[in-house]
Amino acid sequence: MSRFNFSDLTPDTILNALDELDIGVSSGLLALNSFENRVYQFLDDDRKRWVVKFYRPARWSDAQIQEEHDFAEELAAAEVPVVAPHRLHGKTLHHCQGYRLALYPSVGGRPVEIADLDTLDTLGQYLGRLHQVGAKTPFSHRERLDPALLLANAVTAINESQQIPDYLQRPLDAILKPLVDATLAAFAQVQVPTLRLHGDCHAGNFLEGSQGLFVLDLDDARQGPAMQDLWMLLCGSRHEQESQLAVLVEAYEQFMDFDGRQLRLVAPLQALRQVQHLGWLAQRWGDPAFPLAFPWFAEPRHWENQILNFKESLAALNEPPLRLLTGM
Question: Which residue among 8, 22, 181, 200 is the active-site one?
Fold first, then answer.
């Protein structure tokens, strides 16, 4: 499988894949908000609601996807509220016409408000429980969080992008290299244990519904430091982030110890994410869904702002790490 997009994933292909799994479809296919993969919600013949996920071709191997599924099942067995893939014919990973796919029960709800401290308390407990399971054994096939490799791949994709205005190429080069160098230097200063992570804990990957709060989408599960699953839940000013971190870590520590050295990873993880996201957009620009969803990527103003954002991230790497407040 060499293609990297979904150019031949037609409705007929999707229906054929479900038919091969003996799943009848009694509704239309509702495309859900996913750019990395293709995800569709539907009703089966018994009017039960499902979600089918088609993985982006050529991104993960079968073994890597299976390990994601196994981790989700392990978490569910430990009563961590994740949405795990449904087993059909004894398997969770299926294939059809070159695509890899999995079926999930549909879970309704709304994205969480991470600025709410009560919600952060709940998320901290959930992540503590998730990491408690994640620390039991390492991944064998999933990638580890390797800043050097991730940044190198992202920079290559950025440099190959045809969307960078000519007059901004030199200013971009002038800030990108020192930012990457400073980020790698910051990572090198903090050596902490790694564990199996969710890997992409932004607010959109938590849903709050009538049955409580659920963790979604382990697509980016990898081996890395615990802070990778915590920092994305922080927002606002430095003081606000320190207040949020105090609530989050206090709840987290009900299930897992928190290594305070990881506070020094927040700024480099933020910088890594920023460069990675730009590289992600650049690498996938040939996917027709991306110019439609991110038209600003091709606008000069976006690249001007990106250069300013990189400068702010470089400055943040030289600031003291967030403090872990106590007695809140």
Answer: 200
